[in-house]
C-alpha cells in the first residue's frame, strides 16, 4: 500500500518511526538540506558514521559468533545459564545482521530500497531480536534466583533439556509479538519539495494520530519496563537470600556449599551486568521514541536532532556487542576458551605438548627408574584437567 503525504505533515512521524526498536528504517535519516552539502558535517554523515556502524557490526559478530561457537563445541560449557547466554548471543547476531546494516544504509541513500516485503519483514525481525534479548535476560534472572535460593540443587541432564525448551519458547513468543509489525508496516511516499520525494517504511498506519502513541507506549512497556521490573524483583530476593545465608551455611556442607554458592553468586553478577548494559543502552532510545510519538508535530529535522537520534541508535546497537566482552572479563573459564578460539594454532600446539608430556609421564611411572617428582607432576596435570572440566563459566 502506498500513500502520498506532504513533507511538513510527515517529517516528524518519519523521525519518530526511525528510533523505535521494531522499526529503525524510516528515511531519510539525513536531513534533505544536508544531503547535498560538502564540509565537516557531510563528511561525518558519509564517512565517519558508516565507519562507526561497520565497527559495531565487526566487533559484535566477532564476539557473539565466538561465544556461540564455544558453547556449541565445548561440552564442559553446556550448562543452564550458558544455554540462555547462547540464545542471547544469537538474538544479538540477528540484530547485527539486519538492523544495523539497514540503518547504516540510510546515510548513503535517501530512499527505502528493500521494497514492500522488506518493509514488513525487517521491522518484525528486528523486534524479534529485541524481544529475545530482554525476555532471555528475564529468564536468566529467574534461573539465577532459583540457583541462589536452592544452592543444594544439582544440575541434571533434564534441566538442560528443559532450558532448551524455554529458550525455544522465548523465540516463539518474540516472533508472535513481532507479527503486528509485519502486518501493519507500510511504505509511504513522502513529498518534501514540489519536485522531490522519497519513500519510507512506516511501522504503523498513518491515518490516526493515536497509532504512534499506542505503539511507543506498548513497545516501552513490553520490551523494557515490565521485564526490567520483573528482573528487579528477582534480584531483590537474590540479594536478600545472599545476605541471609552469608553466615548460615550448615557445617556438614560448609566446604562444598561455600564453593557452590560463590560460583552461583558470580553467575548472578554476570547476569546483572548483562541486564545493566541492556537497561543503559536501550533507555535513551525508548525515551526518545516516546517523546517523538507524543510531540511529533514539534519535531525539528535539524542536524542537532539527527545527532541525538544517532547517539540513541548507536548506544542501542552497542548492546549487541558488549555481552561477550563483559563475559570475557567476568568469567575465567570463558576467557580461557575465548583466547583459545582466537589463537587456535597455539592451542593445538599446547595440546600436542601436553599430550606428549602426559604420555612421557605415564611411561616414566611404569618404569622402575621413575622418581617421585615425575609422579607428582603427572598427577598435578591430570588433576588440573579434571578441575577445569568441572567449571562451566
How is this structure best described in words?
The protein is mainly alpha-helical and 393 residues long. The chain folds into 2 domains: 4-342, Rhopdopsin 7-helix transmembrane proteins; 345-390, no CATH class. Helices cover 75% and strands 4% of the residues. It contains 12 helices and 3 strands, in the order βααααααββαααααα. The chain has helices spanning 7-17, 32-35, 40-73, 80-105, 115-149, 157-184, 210-245, 254-294, 303-330, 332-342, 344-366, 372-390; strands spanning 4-6, 186-191, 197-202. Strands 1-2-3 form a 3-stranded mixed beta sheet. A hairpin with a 5-residue loop joins β2 and β3 (197-202). α4 (80-105) packs parallel to α6 and α7 (210-245) runs antiparallel to α8. The chain is globular, with a radius of gyration of 26 Å. It starts with a strand and ends with a helix.
Layout of strands and helices, then pairs:
Blueprint: E1 4-6, H1 7-17, H2 32-35, H3 40-73, H4 80-105, H5 115-149, H6 157-184, E2 186-191, E3 197-202, H7 210-245, H8 254-294, H9 303-330, H10 332-342, H11 344-366, H12 372-390
Parallel strand pairs: 1-2
Antiparallel strand pairs: 2-3
Helix pairs in contact: 1-8, 3-4, 3-9, 4-5, 4-6, 4-9, 5-6, 5-7, 5-8, 7-8, 8-9, 9-10, 10-11, 11-12
Biased composition (Polar residues): 16-28
Membrane topology: Multi-pass membrane protein
Subcellular location: Cell membrane
